[in-house]
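Design request, C-alpha cells follow.
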C-alpha cells in the first residue's frame, strides 16, 4: 500500500502496485557498432560532464584567486558550482539507473541553495553594507518586496530538504512510484509541492529584481538573472514533461531503447548537454574581469585592499562552502513572519547573508551626512542620480550606485 492511501470509486481499498513492475524491456540490439544506446549515452554524458566541470572549476578558481569583494564573489562561486552538480548527477543517473531516484532530490536541494545565493547576490548589488541596504530599501519602498522574497526564497531549500527525506523513505518502502500519478503514491505529492515551492521562490526573486532594478542596473544583473533562471526553468520544464510522459505510459521500450533509457537516460543526457552550453556562457556572464585590481574596473570598491581569497583561493572556497549565512536566514523566517505587520523601523531587520546578521533597523534616513572632513554633505533624494539615494564621492565608498574602482 502506498504512503497516501486512497479508495477506489466503489469504496473498496485497492491493492496498489507500482506500474514499473509490469514493464518488460525487449532484447536490446546495438545502436552504433557494438554499443547499446545506454553505453553510448554514458560516453556522451561523461564527456559533457568532464568538459562542464573543467570549465566551471576554472571559472571558480579565477574568482577565488581574484577575491576582491567577498560578499559578492562568495555567492558567485556558489552559483557557478550548480553546473558541476547538475553535470555529475546527470552522468551518475545515466551510468547507474537505479541511483537516479536518490540523486535527483540532491540536485533539487542544490538548485534551491544556488537560488538563495543568487538572491543574496542581488541584495549585495543593492548595497554591500547591511545597515545602509536596510535604510535604502525602507526609503525606496522596496522593503516589502525584500522581506517577501527573503521568506519565499529561503523556504525553498527547507522544502527541498524535507522532500528529499520523504523521497528516500517512500522509495525505500515502495510507496514512491515515479511511474504513476495516483494519489496513493508519494510521487504526485512530491512533484506538486516541488512545483509550487519553485514557482514561489523564482517569482519572488523576479519581483525583488523589478523593485530594485533602477538601483542595481549599473551592475548588469539581467544577463546573470537570465542565465541562472534558464537553468532552473529548463530543468523544471524537462522534469515536468518527462514526469508526465513517464506516469502516463507514453514511453514504450523498443529493441534499441529500454524503458530506463527513455525515462532516465534521455532527460539526463539533455541536462548533460545543456551544462556544456551553460558552462561556456558563464565564462562571460560571471566573468572575473570586473573584480580585477586595476583602473577602470566596475565592481572593485574604492580603497581596494587586494585579493582576499588566500593562497590558491583556499580561503574563498572555504567561505563559499560555509552556508552559515543561509542557515541563519532560514532560522530568521519565523521572526520575519511574526513581524511582517510591524513597521520596518521596529525590531530587528532581515538578515541577507552577512556575517553579522542582527542589528537595529533605521527609522529614517538622515538628510545629510558629515564627510571625513567634518563637513555636511546633503544626500540626493531618491529618483535622482539614476534613482539613487546616497551622495557619491570619495567619502562614500559604499554608495549603492557608485562606479566601483
Amino acid at each position: 500500500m502506498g504512503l497516501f492511501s486512497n479508495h477506489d470509486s466503489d469504496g473498496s481499498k485497492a491493492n496498489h502496485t507500482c506500474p514499473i513492475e509490469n514493464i518488460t524491456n525487449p532484447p536490446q540490439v546495438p545502436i552504433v557498432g557494438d554499443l547499446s544506446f545506454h553505453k553510448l549515452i554514458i560516453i556522451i554524458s561523461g564527456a559533457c560532464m568532464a568538459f562542464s566541470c573543467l570549465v566551471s572549476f576554472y571559472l571558480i578558481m579565477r574568482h577565488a584567486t581574484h577575491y576582491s569583494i567577498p560578499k559578492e564573489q562568495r555567492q558567485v562561486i556558489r552559483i557557478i558550482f550548480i553546473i558541476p552538480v547538475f553535470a555529475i548527477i546527470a552522468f551518475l543517473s545515466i551510468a547507474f539507473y537505479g541511483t537516479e531516484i536518490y540523486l535527483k532530490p540532491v540536485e533539487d536541494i542544490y538548485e534551491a541553495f544556488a537560488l538563495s545565493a543568487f538572491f543574496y547576490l542581488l541584495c549585495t548589488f543593492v548595497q554591500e553594507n547591511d545597515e545602509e541596504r536596510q535604510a535604502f530599501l525602507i526609503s525606496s519602498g522596496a522593503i516589502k518586496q525584500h522581506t517577501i522574497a527573503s521568506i519565499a526564497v529561503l523556504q525553498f531549500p527547507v522544502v527541498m530538504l524535507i522532500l528529499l527525506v520523504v523521497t528516500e523513505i517512500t522509495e525505500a518502502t515502495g510507496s514512491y512510484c515515479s511511474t504513476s500519478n495516483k494519489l496513493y503514491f508519494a510521487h504526485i505529492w512530491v512533484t506538486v509541492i516541488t512545483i509550487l515551492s519553485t514557482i514561489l521562490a523564482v517569482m519572488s526573486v523576479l519581483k525583488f529584481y523589478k523593485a530594485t532594478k533602477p538601483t542595481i542596473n549599473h551592475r548588469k544583473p539581467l544577463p546573470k538573472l537570465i542565465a541562472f533562471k534558464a537553468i532552473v526553468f529548463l530543468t523544471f520544464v524537462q522534469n515536468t514533461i518527462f514526469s508526465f510522459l513517464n506516469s502516463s505510459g507514453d514511453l514504450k521500450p523498443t529493441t534499441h531503447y529500454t524503458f530506463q533509457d527513455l525515462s532516465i537516460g534521455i532527460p539526463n543526457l539533455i541536462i548533460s548537454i545543456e551544462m556544456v552550453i551553460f558552462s561556456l556562457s558563464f565564462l562571460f556572464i560571471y566573468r572575473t574581469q570586473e573584480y580585477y585590481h586595476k583602473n577602470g574596473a566596475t565592481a572593485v570598491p574604492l580603497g581596494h585592499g587586494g585579493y582576499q581569497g588566500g593562497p590558491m583561493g583556499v580561503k574563498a572556497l572555504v567561505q563559499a562552502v560555509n552556508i552559515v549565512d543561509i542557515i541563519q536566514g532560514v532560522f530568521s523566517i519565523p521572526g520575519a513572519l511574526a513581524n511582517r505587520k510591524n513597521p520596518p523601523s521596529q525590531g530587528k531587520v532581515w538578515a541577507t547573508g552577512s556575517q553579522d546578521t542582527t542589528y537595529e533597523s533605521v527609522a529614517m534616513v538622515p538628510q545629510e551626512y558629515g564627510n571625513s572632513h567634518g563637513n555636511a554633505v546633503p544626500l540626493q533624494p531618491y529618483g535622482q542620480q539614476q534613482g539613487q539615494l546616497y551622495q557619491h564621492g570619495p567619502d562614500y565608498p559604499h554608495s549603492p550606485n557608485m562606479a566601483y574602482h
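Comment from the thread starter after seeing the answer: thanks! The beta strands are 368-370, 376-378.
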